[in-house]
Amino acid sequence: xxxxxxxxxxxxxxxxxxxxxxxxxxxxxxxxxxxxxxxxxxxxxxxxxxxxxxxxxxxxxxxxxxxxxxxxxxxxxxxxxxxxxxxxxxxxxxxxxxxxxxxxxxxxxxxxxxxxxxxxxxxxxxxxxxxxxxxxxxxxxxxxxxxxxxxxxxxxxxxxxxxxxxxxxxxxxxxxxxxxxxxxxxxxxxxxxxxxxxxxxxxxxxxxxxxxxxxxxxxxxxxxxxxxxxxxxxxxxxxxxxxxxxxxxxxxxxxxxxxxxxxxxxxxxxxxxxxxxxxxxxxxxxxxxxxxxxxxxxxxxxxxxxxxxxxxxxxxx
Amino acid sequence: xxxxxxxxxxxxxxxxxxxxxxxxxxxxxxxxxxxxxxxxxxxxxxxxxxxxxxxxxxxxxxxxxxxxxxxxxxxxxxxxxxxxxxxxxxxxxxxxxxxxxxxxxxxxxxxxxxxxxxxxxxxxxxxxxxxxxxxxxxxxxxxxxxxxxxxxxxxxxxxxxxxxxxxxxxxxxxxxxxxxxxxxxxxxxxxxxxxxxxxxxxxxxxxxxxxxxxxxxxxxxxxxxxxxxxxxxxxxxxxxxxxxxxxxxxxxxxxxxxxxxxxxxxxxxxxxxxxxxxxxxxxxxxxxxxxxxxxxxxxxxxxxxxxxxxxxxxxxxxxxxxxxxxxx
Lengths: 317, 328
What we know:
The complex is a heterodimer of chains A (317) and B (328). Chain A is mainly beta and 317 residues long. Chain A is 5% helix and 54% strand. Chain A is built from two helices and 29 strands. Chain B is mainly beta and 328 residues long. Chain B is built from four helices and 30 strands. The longest helix of chain B has 10 residues, at 53-62. The model of chain B is unreliable at 1-28 (pLDDT under 50). Chains A and B meet through strand 3, strand 9, strand 13, strand 16 and strand 19 of A and helix 2, helix 3, strand 10, strand 12 and strand 15 of B.
């Protein structure tokens, strides 16, 4: 089923990256009291917006630190970058249209986003649009108010190249949008890990994985210690037709509750595994089509549902 | 009975997801508040915050859209808030920030209708302040679509820290990463609402002056139900019951789920199912060191997946037997 392996070069790039520009500085500060002007970036003369720093101040591989609560504007990230708000208050990233954050990084670039409040005002399309980049690490953040996807993980890093998304300690209010959508292209081997997070409150799937744009590879996902709740649609949908990449999604120690339906695996390359999780207040727990499978280790609590659906048993070891 | 009537898809589709989907496209207004601010400010910038939360609330509402109040700097706001539309209140997370409404008062009342959303995070709601006390309720939810509480501490309220008595259909309350205690705890007691639900995750209820969590469907119509899901949480030291579900044979259904959680040191019961239309389900949880671990009254039901620790109580099980449920 798994037909490709991690390129060594890709993994090495997790630790090694070469900044693409060295004209600027490696650490810049932003503040609600700051000003976007030449020479800004020091703690004594902070800049005002993320985008100005990215376009004019920071080196690739650098870090932007937030000094105080304010709105810092939408941005496009073209290279390795860390944006850090370590508890100084609300660091807003707001958009009224398009994407709040667009990541067009290189296939070996790493992006870290921590402590952001990302808001689409019910009119912007995507909260974080990931077009390319080796790793994106989102932590301690909140997303809400988007019309398509809160996170659209659709990397095109090239055939056989990895793309990894990590979401931790975050809250995603789906609303009219999918909370996390994964649909890579160009043969990219995409993986995501969501843990300690709260996703839901929507009328779309909370997590959607679609491998139909690729073939011959594999996509992986894990959801651990999460709460997936309150969508009128199906909470987790995996579409992996026989012509597409294989998809394996594990749900561990999580609660899936008050959703229209819980799980849907469509296509012979779609597999969802359930481990030590709880399901309640659900229409159908499991729905499959065209050879999709939903596997349980027999240690999940399921109650207050209308239909159990097809579950395949697997043994713990 | 419940499963036969359950149609969450229809239920959710029928409710106010329109509140999210069809919310005003106008730009949201973020208003800032600080104890060093002034209510004559515009409050639209961190540089010009309001002095009071009520002034910030007015400014945020005037801006339209999904409004937000950001609280800057340390301090206690001595006021009560009444919320009637969608809004978010966020402490900036770097200081001690609290609301004390005064004796006999409620800190925040949410009555935003079936399409209104309310979010509260990074703040304390105080029912007592030094020797001055007697505030009634921390958060009173009369109507709302979604209410999200994250990283909030509530202490010392004389009626309830959180009172959830919704009058609209299908309201949802989510409590995350919070601490509630040193007073009365959380109570859900709807009257006319159908299908209210509560998600409590990674939250501590402590030193509860009566119950920590009380799910009461006795005023609901037969066939309606409420659901309270408690996951990865700690409930301890209630004067009466840590968790109690209450209803009658002719009333609504009260379902409480305790998942990966601990209930201990209750003066009466760790979990208490009182009434024919009550079910408390236990999964991977510990009910230990209470006067009574599991108490069953008047036909109540407590279901167990056989993976719970019910031990160390003076009486582990009283009033009936556990109903076995199978893991899948």
